[in-house]
Amino acid sequence: MSDHIRTRQDGGVLEVVIDRPKANAIDLATSRALGLIFRDFRDDPELRVAIVSGTGEKFFCAGWDLKAAASGDAVDGDYGVGGFGGLQELRDLNKPVIGAINGICCGGGLEIALSTDLIIAAEHASFALPEIRSGTVADAASIKLPKRIPYHIAMDMLLTGRWLDVHEAHRWGFVNEILPAEQLMARAWELARLLASGPPLVYAAIKEIVREAEGSTFQTAMNKITKRQFATVDRLYSSEDQLEGARAFAEKRSPIWKGQ
Question: Which of 36, 23, 22, 90 is nearest to 14 (CA)?
Fold first, then answer.
């Protein structure tokens, strides 16, 4: 593993903190370590939700480590399983991930945040894609961002590298909540525990449907759902949890989810 990543597990929640002062920038070794952590999170049936954040109060993550690149890390090198930062290309990640943005979130750091399912941010957080100023392309953001926020706002960020404060990011919809810095991680854990108490098979089906439907027509995706052609949907519809949900509703009690 890496000395630059801290993890904490409590029940079904895994907290992952990037710890590379001063800017929590990511080199190849750190990216590969993050990939292994998120792969193991994906494959561990006891873990249900992950939180990703950065150490300190100034930076969530400044993205690609340009100093490491200047020392020989290739920009097209081996980022490891999951691609850059371990999340954005990790296949079959069917569990919720919360981004807790504790400061500056730019470049590849923003691309990692865009790979999470919920984004909460400290009130001093800021966001940008400054790659244009260093003569390179924000590749993953160029694919994802125009699908998440209005096209012209996404293109403004990509083409000019301008910064958004947290309130503008919230207004355009890629930040869910804004919090005082001292409340950020407590809220992240509150959300994580709420999700961890929910139905994991349903979460898995939601994530696979959303992911696969992105490149599909509505009717094609619906047909795959009704014909149980998504593996997660097929598993859900054959599960004990599906029956438990119906029984709990009929009996007016809280369901007990087993992920089976």
Answer: 36
Decide: 101 and 119 in contact? Cβ < 8 Å.
yes
Contact present, 149 and 114 (Cβ < 8 Å): no
- pTM higher than 0.90, yes or no? yes
Same-domain status, 128 and 217:
no
Q: Is residue 136 part of a domain?
A: yes
Boundary (domain end) residue, out of 181, 196, 211: 196
Q: Are residues 205 and 179 in the same domain?
A: no
Structural domain of 129:
5-196
Residue 260 in domain? no
Supply the DSSP symbol for 89: T
- Cβ count near 168 (within 10 Å): 14
Residue finishing a domain among 196, 223, 242: 196
Full pLDDT tens readout for the chain, 260 residues? 578 999 999 999 999 999 999 999 999 999 999 999 999 999 999 999 999 999 999 999 999 887 766 666 666 678 899 999 999 999 999 999 999 999 999 999 999 999 999 999 999 999 999 998 888 889 999 999 999 999 999 999 999 999 999 999 999 999 999 999 999 999 999 999 999 999 999 999 999 999 999 888 999 999 999 999 999 999 999 999 999 888 989 988 999 999 88
Q: Which residues, in sequence order, are CB contacts of 219 under 8 Å at separation 6+?
A: none
Q: Are residues 229 and 104 in the same domain?
A: no
The residues annotated as belonging to the active site are 111, 131
Could you tell me how many helices (H) and strands (E) the chain has, helices first? 11, 10
